[in-house]
């Protein structure tokens, strides 16, 4: 029976499903929950809808996956009535889109904004969670879905004096809703990852001066963004079915055509011509449409890196600055590469300069600015583009599972999951879009996880089960696969935040799904065919009954 989502003054609200996070995954989960007849509420810490696309509102924050491949595909009507203006949309348009989705599917009345989950306690007997949030509300939910994202906990490096700065200070991942006025200001940008390389060219023309503090250079290639023409708009609408089919089955979740030739099929000259073509191609196709041996041939990736180095030397007028901008410590794709527009060219402007922290480390931040061995440079604004603590949001929500065990403690050495969806010991907790799930275009993977979860819950409902967690065998098998296959990933444990390497003291464990979407599909299909026997299902008490006397009856649970 459906529990009521209505809250009165004295009792906690009862819901079938409580979702955390109003980003692209959380909204989709909410839509699917309501569609299937569950009562649901969504709690969001931010003051608006959008998740990543609410918080990351710095100038030039934008998709680097094509807009129509990142967006939802579950409704042809939605696909038809939303017109993306650019192949890679900017944050304001993305935020408008997600708000449009919330309105179009009447989701907003199930969303509570400005409500950060502070604890979520599993009740052993009833098989429900009691969830408390910063707005003072308490909910009892049968299912808890943490759609809290992986790049959602901003990371500030421990630089001495950071709090002492008297000017304006912003993190790209916590950007204020009121516009920041850069005009005529002396600005520092610290960090040159995807966010740093987007904001630098965006503000370079209006600031008085811009100093970019770079710890490690990245292999940036052009995003090659452009408006979607009227013909392309018509083509997108006409091709909806094919697009959906391709994206629902593609390993990467992109529309980019994989290239059939191996690098060894071509001469050096032909390869250089092909790299030139890739340089001029959109976004991630530098990876997804590269030679067929791209992910298995480090020499090829090295050669591609040298090609990009040549481009950087050609784009940056000052040879010394160009050399500093060329990575020497890693090759292309050992870190998640940024895609940018005009980043290298920005250093040709007289008011923009680069400080390489390898040669000139930051000693401290002072009241007036940033101090290095060359003295204090004074600023009006410091922008921290210093990244995120990957997948951390899930662990800091105060989730406790069976026997009161905290997820934070259970994952002290890194996450252990089944399909990046669930973890043993935490029944009825789902975390689509969390660790071990995705490997390329995230919303496509995250949508697969939501769909699979809904299938599992429907199966359970038909059979009278309402408590579920993966079998230990299934989780061990998936976690072992993730760890074993991590060495085949191009990403480097020393350099990539996909291994947690950007956070001091964080265990070095692979946090993506290195086996890709094919493996995800495969394991899901096998589980489905075997009546979801990778899960242990049981019956809890009715959602509204939180009594300690009920006992759950375990029914199944063999790993195939
Ligand atoms: P990233 O890609 O993690 O970039 C963070 C940047 O901050 C990177 O250049 C770091 O240098 C730099 N950083 C980190 N710590 C410091 C310190 N202590 N001093 C100076 N610089 C530092 O985060 P983004 O926000 O740019 O991008 C995140 C994702 O958003 C991206 O992957 C896309 O999915 C979209 P480092 O390389 O660690 O030396």
UniProtKB/TrEMBL annotation:
<keyword id="KW-0521">NADP</keyword>
<dbReference type="Pfam" id="PF13738">
    <property type="entry name" value="Pyr_redox_3"/>
</dbReference>
<comment type="similarity">
    <text>Belongs to the FAD-binding monooxygenase family.</text>
</comment>
<keyword id="KW-0503">Monooxygenase</keyword>
<keyword id="KW-0285">Flavoprotein</keyword>
<dbReference type="InterPro" id="IPR036188">
    <property type="entry name" value="FAD/NAD-bd_sf"/>
</dbReference>
<protein>
    <submittedName>
        <fullName>Steroid monooxygenase</fullName>
    </submittedName>
</protein>
<dbReference type="GO" id="GO:0004497">
    <property type="term" value="F:monooxygenase activity"/>
</dbReference>
<dbReference type="InterPro" id="IPR050775">
    <property type="entry name" value="FAD-binding_Monooxygenases"/>
</dbReference>
<keyword id="KW-0274">FAD</keyword>
<keyword id="KW-0560">Oxidoreductase</keyword>
């Amino acid at each position: 029976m459906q529990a009521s989502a209505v809250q009165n003054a004295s009792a906690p609200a009862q819901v079938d499903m409580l979702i955390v996070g109003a980003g692209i995954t959380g909204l989709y989960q909410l839509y699917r929950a309501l569609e299937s007849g569950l009562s649901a509420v969504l709690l969001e810490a931010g003051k608006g809808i959008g998740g990543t696309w609410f918080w990351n509102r710095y100038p030039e924050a934008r998709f680097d996956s094509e807009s129509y491949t990142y967006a939802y595909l579950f409704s042809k009507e939605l696909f038809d009535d939303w017109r993306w203006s650019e192949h890679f949309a900017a944050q304001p348009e993305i935020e408008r889109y997600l708000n449009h989705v919330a309105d179009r599917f009447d989701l907003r009345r199930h969303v509570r904004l400005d409500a950060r989950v502070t604890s979520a306690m599993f009740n052993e007997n009833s098989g429900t969670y009691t969830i408390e949030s910063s707005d003072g509300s308490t909910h009892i939910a049968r299912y808890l879905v943490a759609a809290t994202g992986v790049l959602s906990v901003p990371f500030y490096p421990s630089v001495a004096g950071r709090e002492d700065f008297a000017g304006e200070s912003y993190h790209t991942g916590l950007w204020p809703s009121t516009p920041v006025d850069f005009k005529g200001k002396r600005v520092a940008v610290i960090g040159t990852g995807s966010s740093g390389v987007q904001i630098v060219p965006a503000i370079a023309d209006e600031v008085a001066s811009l100093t970019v503090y770079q710890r490690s250079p990245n292999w940036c290639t052009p995003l090659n963004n452009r408006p979607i023409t009227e013909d392309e708009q018509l083509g997108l609408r006409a091709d909806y079915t094919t697009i959906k089919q391709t994206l629902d089955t593609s390993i990467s979740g992109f529309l980019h055509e994989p290239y059939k030739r191996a690098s060894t099929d071509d001469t050096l000259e032909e390869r250089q011509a092909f790299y030139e073509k890739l340089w001029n191609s959109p976004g991630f196709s530098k990876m997804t449409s590269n030679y067929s041996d791209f992910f298995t041939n480090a020499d090829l990736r090295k050669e591609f890196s040298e090609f990009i180095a040549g481009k950087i030397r050609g784009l940056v007028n000052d040879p010394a600055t160009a050399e500093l901008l060329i990575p020497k410590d890693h090759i292309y794709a050992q870190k998640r590469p940024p895609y940018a527009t005009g980043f290298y060219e920005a250093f040709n402007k007289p008011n923009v300069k680069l400080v390489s922290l390898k040669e000139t480390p930051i000693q401290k931040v002072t009241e007036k600015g940033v101090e290095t061995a060359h003295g204090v440079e004074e600023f009006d604004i410091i922008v921290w583009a210093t990244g995120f603590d990957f997948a951390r949001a899930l662990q800091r929500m105060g989730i406790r599972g069976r026997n009161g065990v905290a997820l934070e403690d259970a994952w002290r050495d890194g996450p252990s999951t089944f399909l990046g969806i669930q973890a043993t010991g935490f029944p009825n907790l789902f975390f689509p879009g969390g660790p071990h799930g995705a490997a390329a275009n995230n919303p496509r993977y995250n949508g697969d996880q939501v769909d699979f979860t809904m299938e599992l819950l429907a199966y359970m409902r038909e059979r009278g089960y309402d408590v579920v967690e993966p079998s230990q065998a299934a989780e061990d098998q998936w976690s072992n696969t993730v760890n074993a296959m991590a060495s085949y990933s191009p990403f480097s444990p020393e350099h990539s935040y996909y291994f947690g390497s950007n956070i001091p003291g964080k265990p070095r464990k692979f946090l993506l799904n290195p086996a890709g979407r094919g493996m995800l599909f495969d394991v899901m299909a096998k589980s489905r065919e075997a009546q979801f026997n990778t899960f242990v299902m049981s019956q809890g008490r009715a959602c509204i009954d939180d009594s300690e006397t009920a006992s759950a009856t375990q029914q199944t649970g063999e790993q195939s």
